[in-house]
Amino acid sequence: MSHQEEEKITQNEVAGNGAQGEEKPTGEEEFVNIDEVEEVYEDVDGGEGPQDEDHSMDEAEAEEVDVEVDIGQDETLEIDMSNNSWTYFDKHQDSVFTIVSHPKLPMVFTGGGDNKGYLWTTHTQPPKLVFEVCGHEESIISGGFTADGKYLITADMNGLVQVFKANKSGEKWKKFADLNEVEEVLFVSVHPTLPYFAFGANNGSVWVYQIDGEESKSLVQIMSSFAHTLECNGAVFIPGKDENDLRLVSISEDGTVVNCNCFTGAVNYKLQPHDDFKGVETPWVTIKNYENLIAIGGRDGQLSIINNDTGKIVSSIKTLDDVDDIAELSIEALSWCKRKNLSILAVGLVSGNVLLFDTQQWRVRKNIKVDDAITKLEFIEDSPLLVGSSMNGKIYKWDARTGEELFVGVGHNMGVLDFTVLEKGKKLITAGDEGVSLVFVTE
């Protein structure tokens, strides 16, 4: 048996352990039909959730299987095959880089290194394929739905951005428009309420488009900014007074932070490394906003908090000092707790540390440590519950008030690159580096 065949068998075994008694579909792809989509709407309205919850397990109940794989030269690699997932999706043939959930339906989009994207259901066991995104010739690294769920935006490492539109029931999708303005897209950010999206590029530019589905039935360029000199690594829309008040804050590898008026292109403020950050030149890699505050994380462990109303820096913090390798300091994830009277910002580092900052005094109240890099953090709506993923192949749920570990999802044999939270945290769905997405039922 070849090494490639062994890898494929291992991948399928890992994905399959958590779906007890289910058979993977064979032959022709099984797409969801109109009746099943109507059933999806009933699930959303009724809040029923999955009907097969007897398949869910906590970590203690997970089936533990250790498999030894011969990798040649008298060496073996031991893989932990423990899996407590409810079901899985494994149609990707390469790493799954991004996953986003539909705002109204139990449906997610995954994009991967196989240049493919898939829409699939999250309430069925096994998941059913809704739509296959074609047309990309490089890895799909980012995507998002508009707030009304009518449009899906996908972007790849060749700079191609595609927009797909759903019919009224959501069971069919077709291509609406595409554009290719840059050499490589690094991220897509969708406005939280309006039909706008932004993307940043490797040349430092950032672009904003409106999806006009009524009049011109096309994509309308609202803004293009070239205020950064190096890669634009992230951006967030800032909710304004009305739809005429559209602002975007972007960060860059060159250490600048720029707030732009999307309609006029005017720069409201631009923060420079030496002038505004007191001589600290930090490549900014993550950004998250909450109310009038913006948190930005650096590749060297620097954390800065900006008052977006004034453009002033509220606090600047060096997160860790006792790390030998500077790469361990990179802040890969940020998430604000939105629960009333609980002021916490979660910060995740390559070192595996999850730092929970008190946002009143900007001191660390808890330091949670896992054994590999943190890839993403997300608070569950307005609760104190924090979800995090790691390159150790696990996904966690913690109580941020105490740091208590409430759930650990296992089943991947490579890192978890992304995840999405459904049903107020009752379901967590992962994007695995080995090409598999696992669905976990946590309650």
From TrEMBL:
It comes from the Eukaryota. Residues 1-61 are annotated as: Disordered. SMART domains: WD40 (SM00320). PROSITE patterns: WD_REPEATS_2. Residues 1-10 have a biased composition (Basic and acidic residues). WD repeats lie at residues 89-120. Residues 28-46 have a biased composition (Acidic residues). Keywords: Repeat, WD repeat. This is SQT1. The lineage of its organism: Eukaryota, Fungi, Dikarya, Ascomycota, Saccharomycotina.
